[in-house]
Amino acid sequence: MQYDMVFEGGGAKGMLFVGALQEVEARGYVPVRLLGASAGAIMATFLAAGYLADEMAEALNETDEEDRPVFLGFLETPAALTQEEIQHSAIRDLLREVNLKFIPDFAEGKLDDAIATALATSSITSRIFSFVERGGFYAAESFLAWLITKLNSGTYSLDRGTHPKGEPRNFGRMNLAEFFEATGTDLSLIASDTTDAQMLILNHRTAPRCPVISAVRMSMNFPLLWHEVLWQPEWGPYRDMDISGHSIVDGGMLSNFPIELFLSDQPYVTAVMGEKRTGPLNVMGFLIDEAADVPGAPAVAAEKKGFDFSQLRTIDRVTKLINTMTQAHDKIVIDAFEKFVVRLPAKGYGTIEFGMTPERRAALVGAGRQFTAEYLDRLESRVGVSFGMDTVVETRDLVNKADKVAAKILSR
Predict the structure, then answer these.
(1) Could you read off the pLDDT of 76-106 as tens digits, one per residue?
(2) For the chain, what is the total number of helices (H) and then of strands (E)?
(3) How far apart are alpha carbons 217 and 144 in whole angstroms?
(4) pLDDT-flagged residues of the chain (< 50)
(5) Rounded distance, CA 375 to CA 37, Å?
(6) Can you tell me the distance from the alpha carbon of 260 to that of 271, in angstroms, rounded to the nearest whole number?
(7) Entry pTM
(8) What are the phi and psi torsion angles at 159 (to 5°)?
(9) How many C-beta atoms lie closer than 10 Å to residue 156's C-beta?
(10) Which three-class secondary structure state does DSSP give residue 14?
(11) What are the tens digits of pLDDT across the range 127-137?
(12) Any idea what the Cα angle at residue 281 is, between residues 275 and 287, rounded to 5°?
């Protein structure tokens, strides 16, 4: 049974998808086109690379030398700024504007240099410098290195594309066009261009020269937490538009759950998403439901000592702002296409709870599988084809709704 599959963003809560995919895989549902935002982009990319659900679980449960979850390493200390960067920084400019009348100008300049250098090199305040100058408290180089390793690990399990089944994966350095040719899987990832205020749908049609790892990195680039990503000239145009130097952040900024892109059959949609190769309504959308309890979830462990920038109120406020911005659009979509939505519970789990205990991770994965099984039980009990649609009129009505929503999201 072939389905187009959509994975919502949700940061650390994306562990739900592992359990969901275990059930999907066990029942023989096969993904054809894949669409993901943020954490969903990681899952969609792993699926396209031929990862099985248990392989994903192993990759996402990795620990470092200190037995900490590998994802904690993605909140890494930024590289030090050079003296030239410090001299031309916004903070150094601010210090220039503060004139201390009781200090001679020549001495004040040296004092300002010393203050700026101290702030830029301190283990604590260097994060503030990074936030101001690079758009985020943390770097993401270790995430990129990890993703390259994962895309070059294990054996390819699919019998499609030019990459031979059973051969070692070698996808880590590919661009989106090369990745599509190698895997034969139609992968699209959502990102947000804050320079042009537009949603990006990154795939082999829209941005063929963009590296796969960069597409994933942009899609999961939570604003103000990780450094902003600037579109590089060598990545080529996006849909024939030169967006070199544009600032790209998390796909969830504009749409965290664009399931309508798989339901619409309008030419301006298929030009971006590709033609349907399944039944007209063979779509599953995996949604993280923050209002539903996770059965048997242990309480959050006591916080470790030490200052954690990811817990700043600024990050919490940004999370709430993003949720508010996306929920209005996504609620319309979810309500309109409820038949296609697999709701996965995540109440009490944090978007950036990367250090969750093994017990909390296990509860989340178990909930993902349980709730997906319940959804598929309902699906398989319905009479008829394509989610139990009884009439052609009902089917056409749903597609018409998808056309209208997709037109808005693609600015048509």
Answers:
(1) 666 666 777 777 777 777 777 777 666 776 6
(2) 15, 10
(3) 7
(4) 305, 307, 309-310, 383-390
(5) 22
(6) 14
(7) 0.84
(8) -105, 55
(9) 21
(10) helix
(11) 676 777 766 66
(12) 100
